[in-house]
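Q: Please design a sequence for this.
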């Protein structure tokens, strides 16, 4: 039983590796593509943000489809899109074609966020759910770090003007491996129950989980579904909380990491690429630490306190943009460690606070909202660096972290003991930080 639960989490995490890979290769490939395709700064920003913009539509559309059609079908379809899109990047002829492919791949990333989180939440028992969901973000950082390292290695090894195509297409390899690993994954019993398919749900639970399903009382009325349900009186606070805290976490991260060599160079670092690799290593370590302590520290504290610490690190960089390299390195390391430790909650909170009927819809919507900020930040960073300087960009990141802390203090629940199918409103959060 534990092996099967772990297998589900690992296969779901494999999709997160692909997600991180698709987004991580852009930083190394974009400067080469810019030269080869003759991209303007605005064109480079659009392509850099394309996957994030695609994720917005993917989260909205495919999260809802996952709740309607089931987890298992969408679980495989999105990996096919990853694979095909990766290979198409080898043959695109101009910036417009590359933009379209990256948009479609971003939509698949948005779909996978919703699918993977819902499936793990519905198969995992309460005592393991937090760590298994948090591990999805660990896998994401593994994919992102591997892709970044591969891109830097390839660009230092060859000066072929078409090298950017192979860097972008490298995501085909993990996509194929994960697609094959996911074959044979059963449908979620919780989803089957929500559709009234009790016999199928019981058969899957007994075969794969070794337990009988608990009896479910018939609902007095059909459960609300779709995006409208997210803004019903029972769920609107959960929807706003999950969306806003996620947005406030990822916007500074993507704005900084996508253009890390440029940002680090502006801050005085002599070797931006080495600094980018070290930044990713700290991100991975912090993510592992967050996964290890999530049950002991609690969701709420793990969210609020890192927001305050990252705000402080970004403020120092903003007020002291040309300080000594040791100060820049310490601030980036602190930002990376605390941001990534709390980022595991991007998989945990949205998967726990929505009921089965709208779980994938809720995750997809929150992911979509978060990527609005990430896409805007990625698009504006190169222009912001040119127009205002790196100090102003860091101060804006600090403001977003503070906004995330305030929203979390007001609305963050402690849902570790909730059952995944719970549909009643969450209790009001305690005020401990």
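A: Design:
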């Amino acid at each position: 039983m534990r092996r099967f639960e772990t297998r589900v989490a690992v296969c779901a995490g494999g999709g997160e590796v692909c997600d991180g890979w698709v987004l991580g290769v852009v930083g190394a490939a974009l400067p080469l593509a810019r030269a080869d395709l003759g991209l303007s700064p605005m064109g480079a920003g659009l392509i850099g943000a394309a996957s994030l913009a695609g994720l917005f539509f993917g989260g909205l559309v495919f999260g809802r489809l996952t709740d309607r059609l089931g987890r298992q079908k969408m679980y495989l379809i999105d990996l096919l899109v990853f694979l095909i899109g990766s290979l198409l990047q080898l043959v695109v002829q101009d910036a417009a074609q590359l933009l379209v492919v990256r948009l479609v791949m971003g939509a698949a990333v948005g779909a996978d966020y919703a699918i993977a989180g819902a499936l793990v939440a519905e198969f995992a028992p309460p005592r393991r759910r937090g760590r298994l969901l948090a591990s999805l973000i660990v896998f994401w950082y593994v994919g992102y770090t591997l892709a970044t390292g591969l891109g830097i290695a390839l660009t230092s090894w060859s000066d072929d003007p078409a090298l950017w195509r192979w860097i972008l297409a490298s995501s085909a390899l993990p996509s194929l491996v994960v697609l094959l690993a996911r074959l044979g994954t059963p449908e979620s019993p919780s989803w089957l129950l929500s559709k009234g398919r009790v016999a199928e749900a019981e058969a899957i639970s007994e075969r794969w989980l070794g337990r009988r399903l608990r009896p479910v009382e018939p609902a007095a009325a059909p459960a609300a579904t779709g995006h409208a349900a997210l803004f019903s009186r029972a769920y609107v606070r959960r929807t706003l909380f999950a969306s806003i805290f996620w947005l406030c976490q990822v916007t500074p991260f993507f704005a900084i990491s996508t253009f890390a060599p440029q940002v680090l160079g502006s801050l005085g670092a002599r070797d931006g690429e080495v600094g980018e690799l070290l930044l990713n290593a700290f991100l991975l370590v912090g993510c592992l630490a967050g996964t290890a302590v999530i049950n002991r520290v609690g969701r709420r504290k793990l969210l609020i306190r890192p927001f305050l610490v990252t705000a402080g690190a970004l403020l120092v960089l903003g007020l002291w943009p040309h300080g000594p390299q040791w100060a820049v390195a310490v601030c980036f390391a602190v930002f990376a460690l605390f941001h990534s430790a709390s980022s595991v909650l991007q998989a945990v909170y949205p998967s726990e606070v929505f009921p089965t009927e709208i779980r994938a819809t809720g995750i997809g919507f929150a992911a979509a909202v978060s990527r609005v900020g990430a896409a805007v930040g990625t698009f504006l960073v190169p222009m912001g660096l040119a127009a205002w300087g790196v100090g102003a960009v860091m101060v804006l990141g600090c403001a977003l972290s503070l906004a995330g802390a305030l929203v979390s203090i007001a609305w963050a629940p402690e849902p570790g003991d909730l059952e995944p199918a719970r549909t009643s409103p969450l209790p009001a959060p305690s005020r401990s930080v």
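Q: Thanks. Anything notable?
A: Residues 99 and 127 are 43 Å apart (CA to CA). Confidence is low (pLDDT under 50) at residues 218-222, 419-433.
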